Amino acid sequence: EPTIQDNAPEPRQPMASILPPETLIKVREVDELAARLPLTAREALSNRDLGPLEQLAGSEAMSGDRLRVVERVRAMVAIDKGQDRGEALRVLREACKQASGRGLIEQSRSHLALAIGLARTGAGLEALTETLEALARAREARSAIAETACKAFVRVLYERSGQKTEAAAWE
């Protein structure tokens, strides 16, 4: 007759003993990429230089959400450089459409990126609408970080339009 001891799960092996070494190297590369991508994207936007971001984009570990981040940053840098703004906004709008089938945070990020792009082209009211959409998705996801980012951008939009009282309400 079987005992409880017979049905006990086997002790878990450490990941390093299960995965082959080449897989562990790829896992480390993905982790490094995930850690570097936000900072590299921020630098690309502030310096209007896509070079380091393009290097990351060429990595084998770059896929899915990470590639979507790169596409959004490319579009925003194109807007900043005065390149084909219509095409850049199309890319950002398309990212919003594609995000509708993904998680709420991805939707929030896509709408916020579009809002930033719109604001940089002078479409303040449309930028505000997209920012509020991003804020709604952030709140739905219960992400304090995403919500804070959206509220900060609403504040920026109001400040840029000279509406200091409305801006202060978003602090």
Topology at a glance:
Elements: H1 15-18, H2 21-47, H3 51-57, H4 65-80, H5 85-99, H6 104-120, H7 124-141, H8 144-160, H9 164-168
Helix pairs in contact: 2-3, 2-4, 4-5, 4-6, 5-6, 6-7, 6-8, 7-8
How would you describe what is shown here?
The chain is 74% helix and 0% strand. The longest helix is centred in the first third of the chain and has 27 residues, at 21-47. By secondary structure, the protein is mostly helical. It has nine helices and no strands.
Separation, N- and C-terminal Cα atoms = 67 Å
Q: What structural category arises from helix and sheet content?
A: mainly alpha
Overall helicity:
over 70%
What is the total tally of β strands?
0
**What is the overall shape?**
globular
Q: Which spans of ≥5 residues are poorly predicted at pLDDT below 50?
A: 1-9, 11-27
Give a brief description:
This protein is an all-alpha fold and 171 residues long.
